[in-house]
Structure formats: C-alpha cells, structure tokens
Amino acid sequence: MEFILISGLSGAGKSQVGSIMEDIGYFVVDNMPAALIPKFAELCMAGQAKYDKVAIVSDIRGGQTFDELFTALNDLTAMGCDHQILFVEASAETIIKRYKETRRLHPLVRNGRSLEEAIQHERTILEPVRVRAEYVVDTTAFSTAKLRGELLRLFGSGEPRQAMSVSVISFGFKYGIPIEADLVFDVRFLPNPFYIPELRYQTGVDKPVYDFVFANQQSKDFMNYLEQLMAFLLPQYVEEGKAALVIAVGCTGGQHRSVAVARALADFIRQKGYDASENHRDMTRAR
For the purposes of burial, counting CB atoms within 10 Å of the CB of 64, is it exposed (0-12), middle (13-18) or buried (19 or more)? Predict the structure, then answer.
C-alpha cells in the first residue's frame, strides 16, 4: 500500500494537492486526527487492494505540536506500512496574497497576531515535519497545471497520458452543442446516410452506415487530418495538466455521421494509449 502524508503551511496549496492526488488515483482524507491514522491504515491494509493508494492531509488544524503525529507514523512503521511525507510550502508573500484573495482567516491569526506573524509562527511549528519529509514542494511559482505536473512526476504511475481521461461525444446540432465540450468538430459536410433509404433508420454504430461514411475520400482525408491534430493536441493537454478532455463531434441529427466519426476517433485515441470513452448523446432520438 502507498501511504502519503500531506502536510505543510496553511495557504500553500494542500487542498489543491489533495484534489490532484485524488485525480491520479489516491484515496484522500482531509484533516484526520493523528491518533486515528494507524487504525485507518490497518483498515486499508485489510481492504484487499481497495485502498492501495492513500493520502492523508494533516496540518496545523490538528494541534500545535506534532508529537502525536510522529507517534502515529512510528506505529505505521511498526505495522509494516511504508509511508512518505509530502510537505507543501510557499513564500510568505504568496501566502498573504492568497489569503487576501480568498478572504479566509489563517488558523493562527488571533490575539492580535498579524497574518505575517502567524505564517512565521506556523513555519516554526511545522519545521520538524518538514525536516522529516521525503518530498518538499514549493508552490510559490506554481500554476495549478505546473503543480499537477510535479505531483504526476513524483507520484503518478505509468505513462503521463493515463492521467487524462478523454470523452468523445457525438451529437446533433439541432439539439444543441454539449455544454461540457472542450473541442467541437462539425461533420455535416460529409455525405449523409440519411438520404439512403436502407440506411436512414440505422445509426453510425451499424456497419453499413459506418462503411458508407468512410467509403468516400473526403471522410478518409478528414479523419487523417483529425488524427494528426489529436496526435499533436493530446500531449499538450497532458502537459498543461488537464484531467479530463471532452471532444464533441456533431452532424445534423446525431444519428449517422457524427456517431461513425466519434467511434473512429475514440478508437484512434485509445490506440495512442489514452483512456477514451465514447457517448452518443442523440443517436436514438429520431429512431
């Protein structure tokens, strides 16, 4: 079992780190009391791989000393549960800016203590955790995409492309463009099987319709260009840190051409090693 403890300064991005870790396959628990960590790990280890990747966020909200946390970590070692600490930090100027933007209250701002003093006090309290950490990530200059890329580098498994899911949707323009679409392709210029009587009541998942769509040269040329575009774009989205990409392919009614092209495109994306699903939103509306 992989067991990651996420700790660090308030405002440094621990919540964002937790969300990204969840995206890449970790079961994430925020602010679990330190005393419960060994028992939780025991339950996870007995879960028959259901919780084989776990990340727990533990920070100043759990108390101003970390003796209990270190005791819990020592208990994990005694149990044979390997664990690592990821410490998240940022400059005081960056943290102050983030608190001003969110208008949240730092957990140590009280009794006349300024925000800057609270940050310095928290840094002092957390220093024993930072010293013990296997990984220290400074988010001062990190965008969300860069942070995601760094966590993928440290904790991602397999090919980076596996961290992004791709959904290919076919639709009919007369029913509206899917609001979740990142990319939209219009294939209404392709020959329409609707005007072939024996194909009219079939769909793009049926072989006669699929074969008809790709029997003409312009469909083949279009798919060639589309595949080249996807081969270029997909790695760029992965590099940018995108977790999910939605590609919509539309024709007039969403029954024939868009379905066939969406199927072919999803197959191509899967062949490139990405996790791709297909959904034909309007395929059965007119049947």
Answer: exposed
- Rounded Cα distance between 261 and 281, Å, is 14
User: For residues 215 and 67, which has the higher predicted lDDT (pLDDT)?
Assistant: 215
Asked whether the beta carbons of 8 and 139 are under 8 A apart, the reply is no
Closest CA to 107 of 57, 63, 56: 63
Q: Say how far apart CA 94 and CA 105 lie, in whole Å.
A: 15
E strand or H helix that includes residue 185: strand 183-186
d(CA 195, CA 200): 6
Angle at which helix 257-271 crosses helix 217-240, to 10 degrees, equals: 50
Token pair listed for 209? 């319709």
State the burial class of residue 269 (Cβ atoms within 10 Å of its Cβ: 0-12, 13-18, 19+).
buried
Whether the Cβ atoms of residue 266 and residue 168 lie closer than 8 Å to each other: yes
Q: Do residues 56 and 29 lie in contact, with contact meaning Cβ atoms separated by under 8 Å?
A: yes
pLDDT digits (tens, 9 = 90+) for 252-287: 999 999 999 999 999 999 999 898 999 999 998 865
List beta partners, residue 184: 248
Residue 106 DSSP one-character state: P
CA distance 237 to 220: 25
pLDDT tens-digit map of 85-141: 999 999 999 999 999 888 788 888 877 789 999 999 889 988 988 999 999 999 999
Beta strands across the sheet bearing 83-89: 27-30, 53-57, 2-8, 83-89, 135-138
Task: Give dist(CA 285, CA 268) in Å, integer.
Answer: 26
Confidence at residue 161, expressed as pLDDT on a 0 to 100 scale: 60
